[in-house]
Design brief:
The chain is an alpha/beta fold. Helices cover about 45% and strands about 20% of the residues.
């Protein structure tokens, strides 16, 4: 197959977190299995641009990636150069897999693909959830959806990364055809060395954003009857981080919160295996690569029921699932600290469980099979 992936940003733009890695691993894996894969992306790197000449095509770990100039920054990523090239070349591809939604770049790209008769898959990556439609700039999104978004999506196929996301997509557009396959995640083959923490150590590692439920976590920690240390790894808006620090002061837990900042890939996995429990009580999360990464490093997880992987965590007994109520979160944290047998079991067996469900080679073959179904209309 000849496959085109369209994504607003691509590695080395690691500032955008998990999606950068998972999209790249998918593309690389498809190449390894014999498919021809091209990527159209932009030079986006947060508020800056990648140090790559716009319009250049680079071999990035076996994948031919063309980085187009964008004329607007996040979150719109407008790139007329990408659209022009797409209009000229899209008919050369058997299928087009578009990642993300709501930004102008991919919405126009999807329209171009459909106009030219291409088979299109949209991977919204959590951007078509009920939470998104009812928070932030929800009025603008609803207007965009009703004016042209709905019609574009309805003529495409969709790719959900978890059953919860699949359900939301089908609720949004009745009869919408799609498939569910998890993100492809690059997991290191390094030995697990756990730290003997003097204080029960929790780790939050993600983008620091209001939807991540950090305020709920702070209130939960303030209710604990035992000492705990919360490490926060990630970057976010400076003003919002200051608000969180003020809240920690007001709850008298500032001394229990350690701000680590953004961590490199190597540092990330070291922090994950050094914690006693990974915590993510998001108000909405379509997948959360870091949950899989934590379990791969032998660290149990506590997630909210609004994290799409929560069903997997509960079914496989990989940690604890909580509501968004701070008291419930606090009680689950207490249960986790008390259940040392479970923590030890996952320290010893978490990696093998993850390998059995997220084998990269198996998942890549499943992606290719789904592509083939769409191409042949099976």
């Amino acid at each position: 197959m000849k496959i085109l992936h369209i994504v607003p940003s691509y590695k080395p733009a690691y500032i955008y977190g998990g999606p950068i890695e998972s999209v790249a691993r998918l593309c690389e894996g498809l190449v390894i299995q014999g498919h021809t894969v091209d990527v159209y992306t932009t030079t986006a790197n947060g508020p800056q641009e990648l140090d790559i000449a716009p319009g250049s095509t680079l071999n990035v770990d076996g994948v031919q990636v063309t980085y187009f100039k964008r004329i607007t920054k996040d979150p719109t990523h407008v790139s007329p150069a990408l659209w022009e090239q797409l209009f000229k070349t899209v008919k050369e591809y058997d299928i087009v897999h578009i990642h993300s939604w709501w930004n102008i770049l991919v919405m126009v790209a999807a329209k171009i693909c459909l106009t030219k008769g291409a088979k299109v898959i949209i991977a919204p990556r959590g951007m078509l959830s009920h939470y998104i439609f009812n928070s932030g700039s929800s009025k603008a999104k609803k207007m965009m959806h009703n004016l042209f978004g709905r019609s574009i999506l309805a003529k495409s196929y969709f790719h959900a990364t978890a059953p919860a996301e699949y359900k939301e997509c089908r609720e949004l557009i009745g009869g919408w055809k799609g498939f569910v396959l998890p993100n492809i995640i690059s997991l290191p083959d390094v030995p697990i060395t756990h730290s003997d923490n003097q204080v029960f150590t929790l780790l939050f590692m993600s983008r620091i954003h209001p939807k991540k439920g950090i305020e709920i976590l702070f209130h939960a920690i303030s209710q604990l009857k035992f000492p705990a240390q919360l490490k926060i790894a990630g970057s976010g808006d400076d003003e919002y981080i200051q608000q969180l620090k003020q809240l920690a002061d007001e709850l008298n837990i500032a001394s229990s919160v350690q701000w680590l900042g953004w961590k490199s890939r190597e540092e990330k996995f070291t922090e994950l295996m050094s914690a006693d429990l990974f915590v993510l009580v998001s108000l909405n999360e379509n997948f959360a690569n870091v949950v899989v990464e934590s379990l791969h490093m032998g660290t149990a997880v506590l997630v909210s029921q609004d994290v799409a992987l929560s069903d997997f965590v509960a079914k496989q007994n990989l940690g604890w699932v909580t509501s968004l109520d701070a008291t419930d979160v606090s009680e689950k944290l207490s249960e986790a600290k008390a259940d040392q047998d479970k923590l030890l079991h996952l320290r010893n067996h978490g990696r093998s469980i993850i390998e059995s469900h997220f084998s990269e080679a198996t998942l890549i073959a499943q992606y290719a099979a789904e592509y083939d179904k769409i191409i042949t209309n099976k």
